[in-house]
Amino acid sequence: MRFSIFLLIFTSCILGVSGKSKLSKSLRIQATNVPVVVWHGMGDSCCNPLSMGAVKKLIEETVPGIYVKNLMLGDNVVADMEHGFFANMNDLVDEACQQIQKDPQLQGGYHAVGFSQGGLFVRALAQRCSNPPVKNLISIGGPHQGIFGLPYCIGDTVICDSIRHLLDWGAYIGLVQNHVVQAQYWHDPLNESAYQKKNIFLSDVNNEVTLNATYKANLLRLKNFLLVLFSDDEMVVPKESTWFGYYKPGTVSEVLPMNQTDLFLQDKIGIKKLYESNRLHFLTVKGRHLQISREVLVNEVINKYLK
Ligand SMILES: *[C@@H]1O[C@H](CO)[C@@H](O)[C@H](O)[C@H]1NC(C)=O
Ligand SMILES: *[C@@H]1O[C@H](CO)[C@@H](O)[C@H](O)[C@H]1NC(C)=O
Ligand SMILES: *[C@@H]1O[C@H](CO)[C@@H](O)[C@H](O)[C@H]1NC(C)=O
């Protein structure tokens, strides 16, 4: 399949990466830095120098001596990117967990950063894979309550169109649900029961059907959980999903803020407790999906949560 155009367009919007960094020239190496694991978004791959490669570099420049691991799922970069579209997320979270458990540098725990759908996946990781533990969890535009609509799929590519068609055709049909990543966080507010019954990933991670106490206990071990929302997000619909808000069940005309959703009110996964203990943080970034500048990334994310 023709991924290259897609990759270029998608990644070029992420960061203005070409400028030379004027960041800290401090050479002081802090051996005590908590390492960082990064999970990329849809259409991206672990090692693209224009996107996650640049993020890794930026973190390394800002926090000298820090260990940053970009997750690569699959045997190579192309497989890694394909897995952003076609995979069973439960398997990928398992695979990520195994990679992390095998990495000697991560054994004392780590901070996890997820971009776009990666923001949801790092939360699943924190909930399901507690050893080693995640300390600070950072979600940059992650669809925590799912999405309903894929109105802006990057570029006019074969792959985007086919995913849109597949989701229109039936996100909850087994064939689609089990293989298309976006279907696994497709949340139809007009048919919550279909979502709860048929979804194989998000409804489980959000404890909507059965309540897995381990998920909640693990999330409550976090020191901090940062949720970044983009003011003009056109990928995550509704954008409030990145802050745990969602359409009021049965409608697409009203979006409930986090604190009016069942997820929060019944504290199904612990976000209410995290909120009440001042460990849940919200950041609005002006711009479209993943349009975050180096300055904001350094000042609001890296300096505050990765040091
Ligand atoms: C709850 O989640 C943990 C961690 O993923 C898992 O080991 C356990 O089997 C789950 N329990 C139930 C009842 O699903
Ligand atoms: C919800 O989806 C189920 C199939 O999973 C279907 O039987 C039912 O009619 C749908 N309900 C509505 C209101 O669309
Ligand atoms: C719910 O959150 C909104 C902001 O999203 C806030 O204005 C409101 O006061 C909160 N309500 C409660 C009951 O905490």
Automatic annotation (TrEMBL):
Protein name (database record): Palmitoyl-protein thioesterase 1
InterPro entries hit by this protein: AB_hydrolase_fold, Palm_thioest
Keyword field contains Hydrolase: yes
Gene Ontology MF, one: palmitoyl-(protein) hydrolase activity
Coiled coil residues, start to end: none
A Pfam cross-reference name: Palm_thioest
Catalysed reactions, as listed in the record: S-hexadecanoyl-L-cysteinyl-[protein] + H2O = L-cysteinyl-[protein] + hexadecanoate + H(+)
Signal peptide: 1-19
Taxonomic lineage of the native organism: Eukaryota, Metazoa, Ecdysozoa, Nematoda, Chromadorea
Species annotation: Mesorhabditis belari
Superkingdom classification of source: Eukaryota
GO biological process assignments: receptor-mediated endocytosis
A GO CC term attached to the entry: lysosome
Keyword vocabulary terms for this entry: Disulfide bond, Glycoprotein, Hydrolase, Signal
Keyword Translocase listed: no
Enzyme class: hydrolase
EC number(s) per entry: 3.1.2.22
Family the UniProt entry places it in: Belongs to the palmitoyl-protein thioesterase family.
